[in-house]
Amino acid sequence: MAATTLTAATLADLPAGVPGPTYDRSAVSVGIVHFGVGGFHRAHQAMYLDELMQQGKALDWGICGVGVLEADKRMAEVTEAQDDLYTLVLKHADGRREPRIIGSIVDYLYAPDDPEAVLERMTDPATRIVSLTVTEGGYHKNASTGEFDDRDPAIQADIAAAEGAAPQTTFGYIVEALRRRRDDGTGPFTVMSCDNIQGNGHVAHAMITAYARRRDPELADWIEAQVPFPNSMVDRITPRTTDEDREELSASTGIADAWPVVCEPFTQWVLEDKFVAGRPAFEDVGVQVVNDVEPYELMKLRLLNASHQAIAYLGYLAGYRYAHEVAGDTLFAGFTRAYMDREGTPTLQPVPGVDLDDYKATLIERFANPEIRDTLARLAAESSDRIPTWLVPVIRINLENGGEIERSALVVASWARYAEGADEQGEPIEVVDTGRAEDRIAAARRYPDEPLAFLADRDLFGDLIDDERFTTAYRAHLDALHTRGSRATVTDVEARLPR
Questions:
Q1: What pLDDT sits at residue 1?
Q2: Which among 297, 315, 294, 293 has a CA at the least distance from the CA of 305?
Q3: Bridge partners of 278?
Q4: Model-level pTM greater than 0.90?
Q5: What are phi and psi of 178, to 5 degrees?
Q6: Residue 230 CA from chain centroid, whole number
C-alpha cells in the first residue's frame, strides 16, 4: 500500500500509535518568528511548543519559520507541501521508535523570495519573540577577540544598504524589523537564541548590537536599552535526517514525510526568564526557567560538547564512523569519561539540582545509543566554531590553575591530525569547516616541518601556542598520532595519567 503524504488533510488518517495535534491548528496564531528551521529546532523548541498546545495553551505562540540561505529553499518547499507539519521520531536505545506529528510551526517564509513579507511578519505586534538556531558561525563573532566580525560579504552589504532596503542576513532582518517597530511605536520583541554556544543571549546581544551600531548608532542605543536577549542552554542529540529514516518511517507507519526529524529521547532546555512582551508557559512542559543559565550551559558545553569532539576525531582516525561505535569501545569511553572528570569538571561552577556524576554517566549512555547513528563527520564539522568555545576555555582555566591538560591537548592534536584529510587507513576525510577548511587543511599538512602550525591561528587558539606546557603535550600527542595511531596513543595516555 502506498504511503500517505503528510498534510493537514491527512491528519485524520494517522495510523494508531502515531499521535498528532489534538488542538485546532487553524486557531493557532503566530507569536514567534524563528530563523534557522532545521532538525534541532524542530526536535526541540517547536516540540516544546507543540506539547504546550496539546494542553490547550500557547495557541497564540505559533511559529513562523524563516530561511535566509540558499540551502533553506528545500525547507520552504517541504513545509509548503506538508502544511508545515512534520514527524518527530524518538529513537530509543532498545530499538523502539516513537513517532509523533508536530503542528506548532504554522508558516514558513523563504526570505529571498519576499523580504517584505518577512519584515511584515516581524513587525506585526503579535510577534513577541524572534528566536534563532543559526549555528555558531551565524553570529559573526571572532572566536579569539570576541568582537563582531563583519567580513562576511552579505553582512557588509546589509551594513552599507540604504534604510528600508531588503536585507540579506538574519542580522539585517532583525535590526530592520526593530527599527520599524521603534519608529511606529510597536515596541521591541525578545531575541531568543537557542544555539549551542556559551552565553548565547549575551553573544546575540553583543553581535546584533554591534551590527546595528555600524548602521545606526541611535538605533543601537535603543536596542541596548529595550531589547532583551535571554540566555539558554539547549540539549538534544539530533542527527541529520537520512533517506533510510524516511523509508523506515514510511514502511512502519505508512506516512510519507519528506523531512522527518529523528532524535534521542533525552531533551533539556534551561532558559533565562527575561522577556519584554510575555512568553509561553515553557515551565509547564519541563523547561527549566531560571535566573542564571551559566552553570548549566558550562556543564553542557565542557562535558557533552567537548566530549563529542574527543570521540569525533579520535574515533574517526581509528576507523569508526558513528558516535555509538566509539562510545561503545571501552578504551575511548574511558578516555572520554576521564576527560570529563579530570579536566572538564574542575572548570565548572556548582550546578543547582544536578548530580554531575549521574550527568556524566548519562552522557556516555546517550553517546552509545546505537539507534541514533550520529555520524562522527557531523560531530567533527565546523570545528573552528566549536573548539574555541567548548574546549579552549577548559585548557586556559586548567593552565591558569595548574590543572590537567593532557587529554585536552590530545583532542586538539587529533583535530589537527583529522584536518590533514586522511584517516589512518589512508581513506580520505572531507573536512567541513565553513570559511576555514582550506586554511585548516593547509596548516595541518605543514606537519612535521612546522609541528605547531595548526596552533598558530590566534583567532582560534589565542596564545596557547606561547604556552610551553601545552605545546609540549600537544606536540607529543601529534607525533604519537602519526607514528602509532589513535588507539595506541589513547592507550598510552590512559595507562600513564591518573583517572
A1: 53
A2: 297
A3: none
A4: no
A5: -65, -40
A6: 16
